[in-house]
Design brief:
The protein has helices at about 5-15, 20-40, 45-60, 70-90, 110-115, 115-125, 130-140, 145-150, 155-175, 180. It has about 180 residues and is mainly α. The longest helix is centred in the first third of the chain and has 23 residues, at about 20-40. Belongs to the sigma-70 factor family. ECF subfamily.
């Protein structure tokens, strides 16, 4: 990632339509973009498409970007919204699986500390789409339940329910997969 001064110069060049600088911005933020899109879409091919669509949106709207603001949060919002749009356009949210008879289990911090980012992403793939989406929006990207409800066109209370069920499912997966409890 470029330092702040270099990034401001890079963005100024992108605003002027300099294709080489746009390519440089793309290369420098590609991994960041793909990582966010994979969290929401779970599938690398879908994430690649959403990330590329996001870059197109960035280059079309970069003229409105205010250099006094941080670029990454502005870009992250585009990535999240593009991923959610992609999901709405190409998939239907699956019905939530009722988690009945789930007894909350305590996970020791040492178990969680042993997990890599790849392990966590693998566990999250076991969540249904709505649970994974709400978990990402709330726990990772910091949106409120009200904002999530508005973004996904669901009641705030449903957002809270999906988050609770996602956490319960992840906790259950951690306790039932012996690979994570060694």
């Amino acid at each position: 990632m470029p330092d702040n001064e270099s990034l401001i110069k890079l963005i100024a060049s992108c605003k002027k339509g300099d294709l080489r600088q746009q390519e440089l911005l793309y290369k420098q933020f590609y991994g960041y973009a793909l990582g966010i899109c994979i969290r929401y879409l779970g599938n690398r091919d879908d994430a690649l498409e959403a990330a590329n669509d996001s870059f197109i949106k960035v280059f079309k709207s970069i003229g409105s970007f205010n250099e006094e603001n941080d670029f990454k949060p502005w870009f992250r919002k585009i990535l999240v919204n593009t991923s959610l749009d992609y999901k709405r356009r190409n998939m239907r949210f699956s019905e939530a699986i009722e988690l009945t008879d789930t007894v909350p289990q305590t996970i020791h911090t040492s178990v969680i500390d042993k997990l890599s980012a790849q392990d966590i992403l693998a566990l999250m793939k076991n969540l249904n789409e709505m649970q994974r989406t709400v978990f990402n929006l709330y726990e990772i990207d910091g949106y409120s339940h009200k904002e999530i409800g508005s973004m996904l066109n669901i009641p705030d209370s449903s957002s809270r329910t999906y988050l609770t069920r996602a956490k319960q499912a992840l906790q259950q997966l951690l306790t039932t997969h012996s690979i994570y409890t060694k």
